[in-house]
Amino acid sequence: MIRWRKGEVVRVRREWPGAVELDVALAEGECRALAYPPLVGRPEPGDTVLLNTTALAMGLGTGGYAMVVAIPDRLPQDPSGPGHLVKARYTPLQATVLGADEQGSPHHEALRDADSVDGMPVVIADLHSALTPILCGLYASASGPRPRVAYVMTDGGALPAWFSMSCAELRARDWLCGVVTAGQAFGGDVEAVTLHTGLLAARHVLGADVAVVAQGPGNLGTGTRWGFSGVSAGEAVNAAAVLGGRPVAALRVSEGDKRERHQGVSHHSLTAYGRVALAPATVAVPELAGPIGDTVRAQAAALAVRHELVPVPVDGLIDALRASPVRLSTMGRGLDEDLAYFLTSAAAGRVAASLLAS
């Protein structure tokens, strides 16, 4: 299940908040590794490190790192301060964090009886790569004061929020007012037990006007109808609705994916929103030009049984996407390689902006 290796740190490649990328020398040659200093301490050149090389050996894309499990000769200091929530529970790297709503939290009183997000628009997407284009569409379309947007990261993909370079850059540029890590995910500005408390924290702790819900980097899929981590997008619609939010469903659309099941509207969206979501949502249907637009409209029509389908003009969104503060990429494809994907995500952001104005 795990491929273990011991190596020596050769150099630090780059770092961002919560993560350090390294070159590590192994018996079989150098490899690229990733360490999370809040968990294991900060590796330095010359340190011996214990690695989990499973993802690297499997050739995974998003997870294609050897992961630093420990710096055995230089252990980090014990954590200090409050925090009784355990995440990544009963794994060798279970971590204790301060939950927003636990008794030792300064936000406990605000969240103890919180039961509504007060009509806050909640944009829901299958993939982590949708986060930035959703923000591009939202900010390009919003009128009046710039809205505060929180990202609520679910635990279907990466568990540490530190893995996301996009989140780090979006926070640094004030494109996000904060990151809430829900469920087994951890490392956000705010920690939550469930998606429900994550949405409540986004509203009542971070003061968000809009929340974006998506799993962390690293989608898991099996090519079956139900076996994919993005099924949680349908559950997020239900959570947003039961808390008095206004769920906006971002479709997963592609004209660049070679897999038939993801061409046009992905079967992931049709299952998550068509079968799992029991509450109604506003589904953003972009007005794409050419055959891809006809395909998307025809496929999305199946969701009209429960949801409100809203045609969304995409004028101006390409310019907004090209002005993105972080690199746009989904499944290894950039903006020009899968324009429909990014325009569809940006269209959902445009819908959220319209809800703020209404």
Compute the average pLDDT. 93
Tell the overall outline: globular
Lateral strand order in the biggest sheet: 11-10-9-12-8-13-16-17
Topology, number of strands: 17
Largest sheet: 8 strands, parallel
Percent helix:
25-40%
Which regions have little confidence, pLDDT < 50, spanning 5+ residues? none
Radius of gyration: 20 Å
Strand content: 15-25%
Tally of DSSP helical segments: 11
Distance between the termini: 52 Å
Topology diagram in text:
Layout: E1 4-16, E2 19-26, E3 29-35, H1 37-40, E4 48-52, H2 54-58, E5 66-70, E6 85-87, E7 95-97, H3 108-112, E8 121-124, H4 131-141, E9 149-154, H5 165-172, E10 178-181, E11 190-191, H6 195-204, E12 210-215, H7 232-242, E13 246-250, E14 253-254, E15 264-265, H8 267-276, E16 282-286, H9 291-300, E17 308-312, H10 317-322, H11 339-357
Helix pairs in contact: 4-11, 7-8
How is this structure best described in words?
With 358 residues, this protein is an alpha/beta fold. It folds into two domains: 4-70, Nucleic acid-binding proteins (OB fold (Dihydrolipoamide Acetyltransferase, E2P)), CATH 2.40.50.140; 108-357, Rossmann fold, CATH 3.40.50. 28% of the residues lie in helices and 24% in strands. The protein is built from eleven helices and 17 strands. It has helices at 37-40, 54-58, 108-112, 131-141, 165-172, 195-204, 232-242, 267-276, 291-300, 317-322, 339-357, and strands at residues 4-16, 19-26, 29-35, 48-52, 66-70, 85-87, 95-97, 121-124, 149-154, 178-181, 190-191, 210-215, 246-250, 253-254, 264-265, 282-286, 308-312. The longest helix has 19 residues, at 339-357. The mean pLDDT is 93.
